[in-house]
Amino acid sequence: MKEKALSEAAIEAITTGNATGNAVLCDDGLKRPPWAVGNTLLREYYDSEWGMPVRDERGLFERISLEAFQSGLSWLIVLQKRDALRQAFRNFEPDIVAKFGAHDVERLLADAGIIRNRAKIDATINNARAAIALREDGGLVEFVWSFKPAITPAPRTIAEIPTSSEESIALSKALRKRGFKFVGPTTMFALMEAVGIVDTHLIDSHRRGSSGVWTA
C-alpha cells in the first residue's frame, strides 16, 4: 500500500516515540492523532468516517460487527478486510445475516479474505438476530444511542483518551442482557467513538467537533 508523505514533524514524532502523545502536524498542514498519520487507509478513514454519526440499523450493526472482529487485532487489519467482510456478510443486512446457518459458517471459515474466527463469526450471526429482536423496543439505533453521555472527553493527548466509561460499561451490560456477544466495555467505548456517540478527537485535531453531535 502506498503511503502518503508525512511532514518532517510527523516523521520525527513517530521515530522519536512522541507519537503516543500530541496530535501530529501532517504534510497538508492539518493535525491528526498519531494512529492516523502513518497509513493511507487509516488517514482516509479518520478524515472521512471515524467519529461521524451512524444512525441507521444496518450501519450500526456493521460497526458493532467490525468492532467485534477487531478484538485482539489492529483496526488496520479490519479496514483492509472490510470490503471482503461486507461481501461475505451480505453487506451486514441483519435480516439476511440472521438466517445464516451451518453451511454459511463453513463458507465463512473457508473465506481467506475475511477474519476467520469461528467465535466472532458466530457472534455476528447471533447479534443479527438480537438486533432484529430489539425492533420490538425501538430498535438497535435508539437502544445504543440512549447511552450517549451528558459530556464528552476533551483530550489533548492520546494518554488522556479513556478506553471505557460508565456509559460503555452500562451499554455492554445492557446489550449482553439482550443476547449480544463480543460487546465488552472497551469494545463498546470504541464503538461509541467510531459512531459519534462520544468525541475523542484530540482538541487540536482538525476533526474535533466535526460530527455535529458535540460542539467542542
Beta-strand level of the residues, as a percent range?
under 5%
Radius of gyration: 18 Å
Element-by-element helix/strand order: HEEHHHHHHHHH
The biggest sheet amounts to: 2 strands, antiparallel
- Average pLDDT value? 91
At CATH level 2, the architecture of the largest domain is Orthogonal Bundle
Termini separation:
34 Å
| Number of separate domains | 2
Count the strands?
2
What would you say this structure looks like, in words?
The protein is an all-alpha fold. The protein folds into two domains: 8-48, no CATH class; 57-194, Orthogonal Bundle (Endonuclease III, domain 1). The chain is 47% helix and 2% strand. It has a two-stranded antiparallel ribbon. Strand 1 (24-25) and strand 2 (31-32) form a beta hairpin. Helix 3 packs antiparallel against helix 7 (118-133), helix 3 packs across helix 10 and helix 9 (166-177) crosses helix 10 (185-194). It starts with 7 loop residues before the first helix and ends in a 22-residue tail after the last helix. Mean pLDDT is 91; it is low at 1-19.
